[in-house]
Design brief:
- There is one protein chain.
- The chain has 14 helices and 2 strands; from the N terminus they run E-E-H-H-H-H-H-H-H-H-H-H-H-H-H-H.
- With 325 residues, it is mainly alpha-helical.
- The protein starts with a strand and ends with a helix.
Length: 325
């Protein structure tokens, strides 16, 4: 699509501001509309057997479906206010799903850690969105904000402040260095949840927001430089840490941090198509790796330490080929 298709309706009309809600569809959101429901469908199907007989089976599927719906709401948002709602809903669902087996303390600790780390970034999100609201003449519309920024209607200092605040939010959601610590710990949840969080929903929200609000970052070269350096450091650092992990799921989790670092580098250098293409491919191979590792864990009676595994090719040939792919 060359031009975005925007459909909106007025929600609140007051003398100070007219707040709208609706959908904005372009090439970027269409790509996400393909990735998110498809991977979510596969995770739902995989989960029916994986959590069969679980003590909170219904609760699990309710949150899994809300997770997907929240992400779709986020990628179709027409205003920054809707983006905030979608962003927070995704965070709440991840908290509930990571702590699915909350009776065990490590699981509830991991859920709290993910929730609180994301709250740090969310402060940046709220401040950044408020700055943009006033800078764009009391408008939440993404189109209005980007058009005004491109026409030079927003001062450079204001844009830079908003971009840096939004970057803090993106760093927490997409597991970039300093705010990345929650991502490996998110492995405490059921394996299909890890697949959904690390492949299609949670972590890609940050990269999506960078791409959606790219005109703002383009006009603030400082923010783009910071994005590039953070991405490059995370890509190297997370991959190095991943080399010394023994837990099969933590290795893949650090791999996710590293791959997101590559996407950040591409966005920071202006290669948006490369970053989004990598987001697309990464979603599929990471979901496959996580679901494959879930199959392995299931086959070896819930053991996750790779040092105790070996020679599983003959026992689970299908999983073997999935991991190879």
């Amino acid at each position: 699509l060359t031009r975005p298709v925007v459909r909106c309706a007025t929600w609140i009309d007051s003398p100070e501001a007219s707040i709208t809600w609706g959908t904005q569809i372009d090439g970027l959101s269409i790509m996400m509309l393909l990735v998110v429901p498809l991977i979510s469908l596969l995770v739902h199907i995989f989960s029916t057997d994986y959590v069969h007989g679980d003590r909170r089976y219904t609760h699990y599927f309710a949150f899994l479906s809300l997770f997907t719906a929240s992400m779709l709401f986020f990628v179709l948002s027409q205003s920054t206010l809707q983006m905030i709602v979608g962003w927070e809903l995704v965070g709440v669902c991840s908290f509930a799903l990571i702590g699915h087996w909350w009776e065990e303390k490590p699981n509830s600790d991991a859920a709290l850690k993910a929730f609180l780390t994301n709250r740090v970034g969310d402060m940046g999100l709220l401040i950044g969105m408020i700055i943009l609201f006033f800078a764009a003449g009391n408008s939440f519309s993404i189109m209005d904000i980007t058009i005004l920024a491109n026409e030079g209607g927003i001062r450079h200092t204001v844009l830079m402040a908003a971009s840096i605040c939004l970057l803090a939010a993106v760093m927490s959601k997409s597991g970039q260095f300093i705010l990345h610590t929650w991502l490996p710990d998110a492995m405490a949840g059921p394996t299909p949840v890890s697949a959904l969080i690390h492949a299609a929903t949670m972590v890609t929200a940050g990269v999506f927001m960078l791409a959606r609000l790219s005109p703002l970052f383009e006009l603030s070269t400082t923010a783009l430089t910071v994005v590039t350096f953070i991405g490059a450091f995370t890509a190297f650092f997370a991959a190095t840490v991943g080399l010394v992990q023994n837990d099969i799921k933590r290795v893949i989790a650090y791999s996710t941090c590293s791959q997101l670092g590559y996407m950040f580098v591409a966005i920071g250098m202006g290669f948006y198509s490369a970053a989004i293409f990598h987001l697309f491919t990464h979603a599929f191979f990471k979901a496959l790796l996580f679901l494959g590792s879930g199959s392995v864990i299931h086959a070896v009676s819930d053991e996750q330490d790779m040092r105790k595994m070996g020679g599983l090719r003959k026992l689970i040939p299908y999983t073997y080929w999935m991991m190879i792919i």
